[in-house]
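Bench notes, afternoon.
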Amino acid sequence: MKSPSLSEWTTEELKKNEKGLRIANIALGFCVGVMCLTGGYMFVKKGFSTSTLMPLLFLPLLVINYMQWKKIKTEITSREKH
C-alpha cells in the first residue's frame, strides 16, 4: 500500500511528522557520531573490525531521514506562504 503524498497530508500531520523526524535525525546523528568515535578507537587499538564499518552502514539511513525531513519542511513553508 502506497502512502499518500505530502500534498495530501494536513498541516498538523506535517508538523507532527516534521518534529518526529527532527528528533529522530538528532538521535541517529548522535548515535552515528558515537559509532564513529568508537570505531576509530577500536581501529587504533585492535585494527580493522566490524565496529569500524558500523557508522558507514548507518549513514544512508541518516541521509534518507534528512532528505525526508527537508521535504516536509519545504512543504510546511510553502503552505505557510499561501
